[in-house]
Amino acid sequence: MLSSASPMSVTRSSLEEMLDMLRRQDEAEKPEDLPPALPARPLSKARLPSPRQLSLPVNFEVDNANDNNPMNTNSQPVSASGCEVIPEDSTGKDKESSNSRRNFGGKKMEEDLNLDSPYVIGIEERKEVIKSLASTVESSGFTPCLTSRIREREWEDNIGYFIKKKLSVWCHLVSGEWVSGTILSTKGEEARVLLSNGNTKEVPTGELLPANPDILEGVEDLLQLSYLNDPSILHNLKCRYSHDMIYSMAGPLLIAINPYKDVKTLGQDITPSFRLKVTGRSHICAVANTSYNEMMRDDVNQSIIISGESGSGKTETAKIAMQCLVASGGGNTAGIEDRILQTSCILEAFGNSKTSKNDNSSRFGKFIEILFSTSGKICGAKVQTFLLEKSRIVQLAKGERSYHIFYQLCAGATPSLKETLNLKLGHEYNYLKESGCLIINGVDDEKRFHLLLDALDVVGIRHQDQEGLFAMVAAILWLGNIRFQVIDGENHVDVVADEALTTAASLMGCKAEDLILALSTRKISVGKDSISKKLTAQQASNTRDALAQFIYSSLFDWLVDQINNSLDVGQQFTGRSINILDIYGFESLKNNSFEQFCINYASERLQQHFYRHLFKLEQEDYEMDGIDWTRVDFKDNQKCINLIEKKPLGILSLLDEESSMPKATDMTFAHKLKQQLDTHPCFKGEKDGAFRLYHYAGEVLYDTNGFLDKNRDPVFADLINFLSSCCCQLPQLFASRILSKSPKAGSPLYLSGSNDFQNRSIAANLKHQLFLLLHHIETTRPHFILCIKPNNKQLPGLFEKDLVLQQLRCCEVQEVVRISRLGYPTRMPHQEFAERYGFLLSDANMAKDPLSKSVAILRQFNILPEMYRVGYTKLYLRNGQVASLEDERKRFLQGIIRVQKFLRGCKVRNHFHEFKNGVTALQSFVRGEIARKKFEDLKKMGRISAPGNSMKAPLEEIVYIQSVIRGWMARKQLDNSFKLKKLCSEKPEIKSSNRMSGLMDIAKEPAQVLPTPLIELQSRILKAEAAIEHKHEENAELTEKLREFQTKWSDYEARMKSMEEVWQKQMAALQMSLAAARTNAIPEDYNAITPRRFNATTSPRDYDSEDATSMGSRTPIAIGSTPMKFSASIPHRRAARDNTNGTLSTVNDLIKEFELRKQTFDEDARSLGQDGHRPSEISPQSFNPDEELRKLKASFDSWKKDYKVRLREARVKLHKLGYSESDRRRKWWGKMR
After folding, report:
1. Residues within the annotated binding site for ATP?
2. 516-523 long-range contacts, CB within 8 A, separation 24+
3. pLDDT tens-digit profile of 900-910?
4. Exposed e or buried b per residue across 248-287, where buried means at least 16 C-beta atoms within 10 angstroms of its C-beta
5. Residue list for the binding site
6. I want to staple 573 with a disulfide (CB 3.0 to 4.6 A). Which of 280, 569, 786, 793 is the partner?
7. Is the full-model pTM beyond 0.70?
8. Contact predicate 244/745, CB 8 Å
9. Where on the phi/psi map is residue 1232: left (φ > 0), alpha (ψ -120 to 50), or beta?
10. Higher pLDDT, residue 714 or 1094
11. How far is the CA of 1053 from the CAs of 1040, 1045, 1164, 1165, 1170, in angstroms?
12. Over 50: is that where the pLDDT of 92 sits?
């Protein structure tokens, strides 16, 4: 919704005119087959490229008086739209400063240039660059004034559209909170908005911002948002955070929000399979994979820079990045990956502690350089640390803890180790119980100590060194328990000889008397003599604390050296590396001292590096390379950095100056700061020696108490000499490092406990280390990760909008997204682009200059003109354009490799065959020569040793052997002839197998010379025996078949018997059914009169089943059983008998048919069941028992079905006659009465 307008000069530069002239000359001399010329460039508002050839970019600003720091009380106000507003009553100086912003012809350019910068190689080279730029601008004929983008609001014109479409907007309430709503109506400058909570509120239209549609809620990359503003960015991050999606992209920047809990997307166990699952860009592994792939592809070292406030999760982010890199480049050297990962556990134990804002705060800066071989495998690493906070060892704030190792050692040491070190519980040591905090919720110090022991073993630190390491840690704890007692009126003290003194002396390997002298006295050199001076209580306490701090800082440096020795790369390093920077997070505590000042200064420097790469160099490249670009403003922190480090009136310079003065105090230092820097917009002097600085992340109030002593970091020669006299190895090593750098024995040494440079204060040493670090990082390709702290209570799921928004604004996330959206993140020099993709061109007659090649490549692959820009020296591409080129390049290279594979295979095979033929020929020649040589040797031996009768004896021996053999063969032949005759004369009952075996034995005998008839006879016998053997085999087969048929027939008999039994039962059931039907059909009196008419018996009364019991269970009715009176009723029954004659005839027919069928089926079944018999009507050729049985069964089933139907019909007829059993019974008994 914003528009920009800037004046553009129509005057063309001399360089552009020269390019046009060269283009016209090329067109005149160009052959007809060359590609068309490039289109004319648009007039550029950019400055011309400078003649610098430095490896590091030059960092300078035209007007340092201009500052957009958010905490600058003197800075200009900013409107809601983001435009800078210059008040009418501003001074002329402010107006001039505002108008001359970034004016390369400004008079203050050289004056305000910060020459004390990590990006400057030399002052003279800087001046030459500035002079060259000035002359180039003058010769160009126009002034390329790069004004800020004028942001004009068009929101008023679109309010009607939002009302009509009922689109959501963000409403900025008086409380400062952004709430979503819908515009109902507008009236002048006021708008009536329906909020999401249902309330209606009237707000100014200037307090409304457009909201993104619901479909864009929780997008992975902020570049996808339609409307880019603070509430939209904040709402998108909150939506993702509520679903445990803690990673989001802001262009090239990865945003990681601390979840304060275990989240699956963190990837605690990073494996190659897990890395393949990470398909999106918003993950730490995606950043690590990108850096690794770019290192292998472009052969450029990479850096992963992790920034954020204290407690935002930088340490965990660095560990996950290391795991991802190890998963990418692991597998080369055995154990090197595990050693690299275990360094985090060791450094956390000795360098992290609990603060008021973070339970695992890094109290040192860490820079890990992971080294790779040519094949992309990890071959080593280097660890560099910065400014360990030593004051935390002896002084703690309420609710904080010292370094984790002290608590882990007290909680997790084995009984034997506790006995050796005389360890006690943590609350018994003064250095630990001062803060009143000994444990961390949810943290098991005992378990962490065992993990530390495993890590030390993996890294390769010997057990002897581990014992010395823990002895020094325990000695520091016991030093804190040493007490002093006043011995005179001048407050001089002596050391109390107690358990703490003796244990500390024993652990350091010295006598208790030596430790007493080192802590309570100090030697002062007077000429060639020295005088011992007693110390006061405060001096003795400071000496004890200084000794403890020096031992721990030296121990930490020694531990880092041991880690580097274990990760030594050797000869495999080829210059490829990926660096991970995890440095201090910005801190603002209740009491901020020298440590917080150094930490925040390092954060300012790192933030400036962030601004430099994402804002300054990005836009400078566009302008210097002739790209039409509208500058995006951002709030630079260069003024705060200049305030701290600029000479001679910077805070660091004044601090070093006061530290070098013996009589200087913290109050004199604070007074000097207020006197010299009170007019600076980023500084404000306070009362009681305090001062306030306006950093990029907010203002911080510092207390100067202790600034000078902490900056000096005094270590006296008495303590160094004491440590050198100890028996233990580590104290002697610590002292030797200091003595090797001491300028003079016996004088107080103001040295840095962890730096090689003499007489350099802590602040100066930190500045020097930061400059070296930035110089190193500047030679690499950076990847930025911004860690966000969602709340100050360290609770999961709590998202404090104001806190998150403040961190986003401090890092200019919105401006980063805007530059990424408008810019061209992929840029390559024309020469490099042409070399990488030039072979893909199909036109062989193309011009050979890199610029023409670059344009031809873009045209060939149909890349749209709005997706790239052609600069003077580089080609600029938008996101995703290189991917298609890389895919095509990969496919083309794979085809080339495939062709080369076949050609090389063919070549190698031809070479192999030629080599094989040559070897064979050579072997034949050699073997022939050897054979000829042997033959000549034998020939010579034969000529020399053979007399005239020398061959007679061998010939006689040969003849004798032949005669013996021939006689044996003749006897053998005779024996064989006798055997044949004997076999021929034997009886035929002899088994052929025996004859065959004998003949086979004869055949197996050695070949003999036999007569021809005998040979013929032998062959005939062999044939006969073979025929007999064949017959025997056939007989065996037939016997086996016969046995099978017999088995089958037995099965048939069994089946027939079972079927016969079933049929018998079914026949009996049918007979019972017939008998029942007959009984029902004939009256009882009729049965009594004519009993002989029926041969069958009646079934019991009320029987109505077809499948009843057997026939034997039925009892026939006796003739004489009928009563006499029943005979008198015969005349009355005649009529009924006549009516039943038809039905009775039907029943009789059924009985006769049943008997006939039964007899037929019985005969057929018996004939099939008899062995070897068959029915007479079936021929022997077609007789098949199975088939006949099946036919018989089918015939029986068919008849049975038909018979049942007819039987039912007869029963129905009987019932129709009305002769039921009950009626007959009543009539019969009635007649009897």
Report:
1. 308-315
2. 517/722, 518/543, 518/547, 518/718, 518/719, 518/722, 519/482, 519/484, 519/495, 519/543, 519/544, 519/547, 520/484, 520/493, 520/494, 520/495, 521/718, 522/716, 522/718, 523/717, 523/718, 523/746
3. 999 999 999 99
4. bbbbbbbbbbbbbeeeeebbeebeeeebeebeebbbbbbb
5. 308-315
6. 569
7. no
8. no
9. alpha
10. 714
11. 20, 12, 14, 10, 8
12. no
- The C-alpha atoms of residue 617 and residue 599 are separated, in whole angstroms, by 26
Pick from 650, 702, 640: nearest CA to 673: 650
Q: Is 1089 left (phi over 0), alpha (psi -120 to 50) or beta?
A: alpha
If phi > 0 it is left, if psi is from -120 to 50 it is alpha, else beta; for residue 190 that is beta
Task: Please say whether the beta carbons of 374 and 574 come within 8 A.
Answer: yes
Give me the residue label for tokens 């409380």: 175
Residue 110, C-beta contacts closer than 8 angstroms, at least 6 positions apart: 127, 130
Three-state DSSP class for 510? coil
DSSP string, 921-962: HHHHHHHHHHHHHHHHHHHHHHHHH--TTTTHHHHHHHHHHH
pLDDT at 522 over 80: yes
d(CA 606, CA 314): 14
Task: Report the alpha-carbon distance of residue 1233 to residue 1217 in Å, rounded.
Answer: 25
In Å, how far from its chain's centre is CA 707?
46
Contact (CB, 8 A) for 1115 and 1098:
no
Rounded-to-integer distance, Cα 209 and Cα 149, Å: 20
Position 652: which residue type?
L
Closest CA to 403 of 349, 446, 457, 357: 349
Name the one residue in this structure whose structure tokens are 């069994």: 1054
Euclidean distance between CA atoms 351 and 980, whole angstroms: 108
Q: Which amino acid makes up residue 633?
A: D
d(CA 286, CA 278): 7
Supply 744's token pair.
């003079």
Which residues contact residue 662 at a Cβ distance below 8 angstroms, ignoring those fewer than 6 apart?
none
- One DSSP character per residue, 571-592 reads T---SEEEEEEE-PPB---SSB
Q: Measured between alpha carbons, how far is residue 660 from residues 554, 655, 677, 704 in Å?
A: 24, 9, 20, 16
Q: What is the DSSP string of 768-799?
A: HHHHHHHHHHHTSEEEEEEEE---SS--TT--
Name residue, tokens 């954060």.
603
Tell me the C-alpha distance between 241 and 243, whole Å: 5
User: What is the pairing mode between strands 178-187 and 190-195?
Assistant: antiparallel
User: Which residues are CB-neighbours of 949 under 8 A, at least 6 positions away?
Assistant: none
CA distance 837 to 839: 6
C-alpha torsion sign, points 259, 265, 269, 272? negative
H-type alpha helices, 509-637 = 512-520, 537-566, 594-611, 617-624
Cα 60 from Cα 112, distance rounded (Å): 9
Is residue 627 within 8 Å of 42, Cβ to Cβ?
Answer: no
Instruction: Verify cis geometry, omega within 30 degrees of 0, for the bond prior to 648.
Output: yes
Tokens of 435: 């803060």
Q: Are 289 and 236 in contact (CB under 8 A)?
A: no
With residue 750 as reference, give the H or E element that holds it.
Answer: strand 749-750
CA distances from 982 to 999, 1019, 1186 (A): 12, 17, 55
> Are the C-beta atoms of residues 108 and 61 closer than 8 Å to each other?
no
**From CA 228, how far away is CA 817, in angstroms rounded?**
8
In this predicted structure, what is the pLDDT of residue 612? Answer: 87
Given a contact cutoff of 8 angstroms between Cβ atoms, the answer to whether 579 and 371 are in contact is no
Specify the pLDDT at position 13: 46
Highest mean pLDDT among 442-456, 484-498, 822-836, 1176-1190: 442-456
Residue reference for tokens 């962890």:
754
Q: Do 1087 and 1098 form a contact (C-beta atoms < 8 A)?
A: yes
Nearest to 1073 by CA among 1116, 1117, 1105, 1096: 1105
